[in-house]
Design brief:
The chain contains six helices and 66 strands. By secondary structure, the chain is mostly beta strands. Among the domains are: 274 residues, no CATH class; 70 residues, no CATH class. Strand 2 and strand 3 form a beta hairpin.
Length: 988
């Protein structure tokens, strides 16, 4: 470790220790802030209960259950504790007053130590060979001591759980019917304001806010009877409040722990029936939960001060608008809304609305932020399930398609900012936002019955966290950011299944999922500061428009629009830093979906889906290591891998159809720009983009019956982007090491039939980009500005494959336009004698793209294909290419090696290009009649399966015919073949 760094740490520890000793004694005489809560412990839990309009049907009559309104609270226990605090402070006065008088000299000593520490820190940084090194301002003096014996530390808790049980009807051996319109609203707002500035172990806050409304409304049930309900229920709960504290110039002060939870539970609008029962619900339910607020602190010039751990969580749990029956009937219609919000914002740095704002400027282990932020959802709505009965949702009382709707919002946290300027171990951020809605809706299933879920509309938004900002100039181990951001979905909707029955489902969805944002920091004139590590993941996953039947009928029809985004790139800046402002990231975009699929076994099935998906992870990255050491480097592994199966049909003894229309956009990472000018081991980039896609569609398979699969596919996948850096006048600076990878797998327009008819049609348009252009420079540098790039691609695609047997007919139509690019040209400059400006790029690619692969055994196969695709690696076509049509590759030929150079074709010496062309041997010098005839290799002896056993002796005979030629070299070629035994080579 640098000497100046050791001295900086020692100074901070000494200053912090004196500060803790002095201010700990002095703060015994604190004065109470009139804006703060009266007591240090403020905990309250409330359980308001509302029970109305519920009914039970028994033989011969309906019983209306009594209403009940009450609130259970912990106030009788917690209020006496709060009231006991003022007398306790008065009782402590004989002790606190003398201690306060004795504390003044210690405060003075702490201030002198702080000023000395600042001067030593400035002198230490002057030892670093940098320009324009910043000078610390004088340390702020401790705040005046006050007289709270508990030093302003606060523990608060606010739990609100309203319970709403309304409009439920249950018929047991009788009938029950009710109508209810109810509203329940409860909330607390409690701000926490305190301070530990200039004190030791003061002004710390633990504040829990939890809002958890429970709604059980509008449900109907029937067993040997009927239950019916209608109406609405609205419920809201709030436990809000902002937290403000400070630990400036304090020790272990001004820290905050703020868990904020919003977890509404909704069990409403369902219809459930048992044997010989019937249930009907037509209900509108709404549940809203809100908790917490913004968090504000300050740990400037403190030790272990102003740190914030914020943990907001929003999690609505919902089962609404479902119809379930066993040997009965059930109908459910209406709407369901759930909203959960945790945290709040206040204008902060740069006037950006901020969730967490703090600072560790000139502090030790201060102003750090840890913030896991979860926006989740668990929901089952508008689905129907029947066993030996009939269940309907979204069809209206007359079953005419009135529809059912559900919506949900889950949001947490927001933008956060801090600073570690001039500090040690300060202003760091650990950020973990994650957004994950898990939903099932519009699904119908029937077993010996009918389950029909029609016309469901769903809207979902899940947003977690935001961007982050911290600055660590003139610091040590400060302003570093580590962030894991996840935006994902798990959905199943618009599907149907029938087993000895009927199942139908239809639904539309609009969904927005966002986690995290841009990360910004800096590390000028610092050591081990301003670095960023970021792992954003965008992975929307869904099953929709699926249909499956077994001795029954089914259909699934769905439309989906999803936008998922995780992270947003980052920016880190450094001049004259040591191991500072480096950026490491692995953004991953991996949408995975199966849709528009129909399968049947002795039945009839139809699946159709329309998909529009956008998935993004990360973004552009900017780093700067100018005139630094081991600074401004970037290591990135962006991965874009959309995986989809759609427009597929499979049938056994029946009919199945799958239809799909897909538009998907997947992107991971972006452009990368940095510099290491004048630096050592600075401004280098290691970039390994993985741009890929895997898809299959327009495929049908059938055994005794008919199957038809149709898919329109429009997909783009992009990983990484352009890379630019500089290493001028540097040492091991501005170098680029990259390996753009681009595997492609696709199968569209295929059909297979055994004693039946199968038709497959696939129109594929795919655009893939892995990496981009690379530019750097190493002028005036040593081992700088070099490029080592190895782009690689492997493509395996099949279009128009057909197979038919035993009287089957297979027909396929496939159109393909796959455009793929891995890497682009590279540019650099530098003095090669200094091993700078080396440009090394070696692409490797292989492509196997087959069309019209027919297999027929006592059947008929037909395929129609078209291709306009192109794959380029470093602007070159793949070296290895199999023929598009299998029939084009004779058994005695090798696949194309476009662009590859065989070893014996390479010049033996550098002077080879100077050989005069007029002395090269002419092909006509060898008599054509001496070449082996075609009869020398009988077609029946071709090595189709068994290797070379069937052609034994043919190749040696061909080699021996070389003896008829004049193989001696003449002119300038004389002697170059000496020592080469041709017979030996031919006989291998």
């Amino acid at each position: 470790m640098q000497t100046w760094a050791k001295r900086g740490i020692q100074t901070a520890l000494v200053t912090g220790g004196l500060l803790m000793l002095g201010t700990g004694i002095a703060s015994a005489d604190e004065k109470v802030d009139p804006d703060t809560p009266a007591g240090p412990l403020d905990v309250e839990a409330s359980f308001p209960v509302e029970i109305d309009d519920n009914a039970v049907g028994i033989p011969g009559q309906q019983v209306d259950l009594p209403s009940h309104h009450n609130e259970i609270s912990t106030k009788p226990v917690t209020d006496p504790i709060d009231m006991a605090a003022p007398p306790a402070r008065e009782a402590m006065a004989p002790i606190t007053d003398p201690v306060a008088s004795a504390a003044a000299p210690v405060h003075g000593a702490a201030t002198i130590a702080g000023d000395a520490g600042s001067r030593i820190g400035s002198a230490a940084r002057a030892l670093v060979p940098v320009q324009h090194a910043a000078v610390d301002p004088p340390a702020a003096r401790p705040a005046e001591p006050t007289s709270d014996p508990l030093l302003g530390n606060k523990v608060t808790g606010d739990v609100m759980m309203p319970i709403q049980i309304t409009g439920n009807a249950f018929g047991a051996l009788g009938d029950a019917e009710t109508r209810s319109v109810e509203e329940q609203n409860h909330g607390h707002h409690t701000d926490v304001t305190t301070s530990g500035a200039g004190s030791a172990f003061a002004g710390n806050v633990v504040a829990l806010d939890w809002s958890a409304p429970v709604q059980i409304s509008g449900n109907a049930g029937g067993v040997l009877g009927n239950g019916a309900t209608s109406g609405s229920a609205t419920q809201s709960a709030a436990t809000t409040g902002d937290v403000e504290t400070a630990g400036k110039n304090g020790a272990l002060s001004g820290n905050a722990l703020t868990p904020q939870f919003s977890t509404p539970v909704q069990l409403s609008g369902n219809a459930v029936s048992g044997p010989l029962g019937h249930a009907t619900s037509d209900f509108a339910a709404e549940s809203v939960a809100e908790s917490g607020g913004y968090v504000l602190s300050d740990g400037e010039q403190g030790a272990g001060a102003g740190n914030v751990a914020a943990a907001p969580l929003s999690l609505p749990l919902r089962a609404a608008g479902n119809g379930i029956t066993g040997i009965g009937g059930a109908e459910a219609n209406g709407t369901a809304t759930a909203v959960a919000e945790s945290g709040g914002t206040k204008p902060g740095r740069y006037d950006i609305p901020s969730y967490v704002s703090t600072s560790g400027k000139h502090g030790l282990a201060s102003g750090n932020v840890a913030q896991p932020q979860g926006a989740l959802l668990g929901s089952v709505t508008g689905s129907a399930a029947a066993v030996a009965g009939n269940a309907f949702t979204g069809t209206g009382a007359a079953r005419q398609g009135s529809g059912i709707t559900s919506s949900a919002e889950s949001s947490t946290g927001g933008f956060s900012n801090t600073s570690g300027h001039g500090g040690t171990g300060s202003g760091n951020i650990a950020d973990a936002p994650f957004a994950l809605p898990v939903e099932t809706f519009g699904v119908g299933g029937g077993v010996f019955g009918s389950g029909i879920a029609e016309n469901h509309g769903n809207n979902t938004a899940a947003h977690a966290g935001g961007g982050t900002v911290s600055h660590g100039d003139d610091s040590l181990l400060s302003a570093n950011t580590a962030s894991g951001q996840a935006a994902s979905t798990l959905d199943a909707f618009g599907s149907g299944a029938g087993v000895f029955g009927t199942g139908r489902g239809s639904a539309k969805e609009q969904q927005s999922v966002v986690a995290g944002g841009h990360s910004d920091t800096s590390g000028n004139n610092s050591a081990l500061s301003g670095n960023v590590g970021q792992v954003p993941l965008s992975a929307p996953a869904a099953l929709f428009g699926l249909s499956g039947s077994a001795v029954g009928k089914s259909s699934g029809i769905a439309e989906e629009t999803t936008a998922a985004k995780a992270g947003g790139g980052g920016n880190t800046h450094d001049d004259f830093g040591v191991v500072a402002s480096n950026f490491v990231g692995a953004p991953v975009s991996a949408p995975a979906q199966v849709f528009g699929v129909g399968t049947s076994a002795v039945g009839k099935s139809f699946g159709a889906a329309d998909s529009d998906t956008i998935s993004e992870a990360g973004g552009d990255v900017y780093a700067n290591g100018k005139k630094g050491a081991a600074s401004g480097n970037a290591g990135l592994v962006p991965v874009s891998l959309p995986t989809q199966v759609h427009g597929v049909a499979g049938n056994w003894v029946g009919y199945a159809a799958g239809v799909s229309d897909n538009a998907t956009r997947s992107a991971a990472g972006g452009n990368t720009r940095t510099t290491g000018e004048g630096g050592a081991l600075a401004g280098n980039t290691a970039d390994v983009p993985f741009g890929s896609s895997a898809g299959a569609g327009g495929i049908a398979a059938n055994w005794v019956g008919t199957a038809a699969g149709t898919a329109n596919n429009d997909m783009s996948s992009k990983a990484g982007g352009n890379t630019g850096t500089r290493g001028d006048r540097g040492a091991l600076a501005g170098n680029v090491v990259s390996a753009e990878t681009m595997p492609i797998a696709a199968a569209y327009g295929g059909a297979a039939s055994l004693t039946g008819i199968a038709h497959g049609r696939g129109d594929n348009a795919t655009d893939i980009i892995s990496g981009g252009r690379t530019a750097t420079s190493g002028s005036g540098g040593v081992l700088s500005g070099d490029i080592f790039d190895t782009p690689a691609s492997v493509a395996a695609e099949a279009f128009g494959a057909t197979a038919a047997a035993a009287g089957g007919e297979a027909r396929a139509v496939a159109k393909n336009n796959t455009t793929a690019t891995a890497s682009r040209p590279t540019t650099t400059k530098g003095n090669r004698h200094e091993l700078s400006g080396v440009d090394g790029q070696q692409p490797v690619a292989a492509m196997a793209r087959t069309y019209r692969l027919p297999i027929t055994v006592l059947g008929r196969s037909m395929s129609y294909t078209g291709d306009r695709g192109k794959v380029l690696v470093a602007d070159k076509e793949p070296q290895i290419q199999l023929p598009k049509y299998i029939a084009e590759l004779p058994v005695d030929e090798l696949p194309s090696l476009f662009g590859a150079v065989a070893p014996f074709e390479r010049p033996a010496r550098h002077a080879a290009p100077e050989l005069p062309t007029e002395i090269l041997p002419k092909i006509y010098t060898r008599p054509v009649e001496m070449l082996p005839g075609r009869s020398h290799l009988p077609r029946s002896a071709a090595p189709l399966r068994g290797g070379r056993s069937h052609v034994t002796g043919v190749l040696p005979a061909t080699a021996r015919t070389l003896a008829h030629y004049d193989t001696a070299a003449h002119g300038r070629f004389q002697g170059v073949l000496d020592g080469l035994e041709l017979d030996e080579v031919a006989g291998r």
